[in-house]
Write a structure and sequence with these properties.
Layout: H1 2-41, E1 48-51, E2 56-62, E3 66-70, E4 76-80, E5 84-88
Antiparallel strand pairs: 1-2, 1-5, 2-3, 3-4
């Protein structure tokens, strides 16, 4: 009987460390990824975005895997959804 209690006592610090790790690292990262995905799904024509490369552009047409964006009056390019950093609310 003492062997079972001793094993639980020795595992308790690992369980506590995993709990701390989960609440300080994993959970905030999941929340951030979810918020970024919701932002990508809510993009519509006319929204201003910033790419990971630092380009500020305007959404022309959101598509399934890519987003058509306007860099200036003449230039329209496709950007992969993975490279959209954030939406500009200015």
């Amino acid at each position: 009987m003492q062997g079972g209690g001793n094993a639980l006592t020795s595992l308790m610090p690992l369980i506590v460390l995993f709990g701390i790790f989960y609440f300080l690292v994993i959970r905030p990262q999941q929340k951030q990824a979810k918020a970024h995905k919701e932002m990508l799904d809510s993009l519509k024509k006319g929204d201003k975005i910033i790419t990971n490369g630092g380009l500020i552009c305007e959404v022309v047409k959101p598509e399934e895997d890519f987003i058509k964006v306007k860099l200036n009056d003449d230039t329209v390019v496709k950007v992969s959804r993975e490279f959209i950093a954030k939406k500009v609310d200015a």
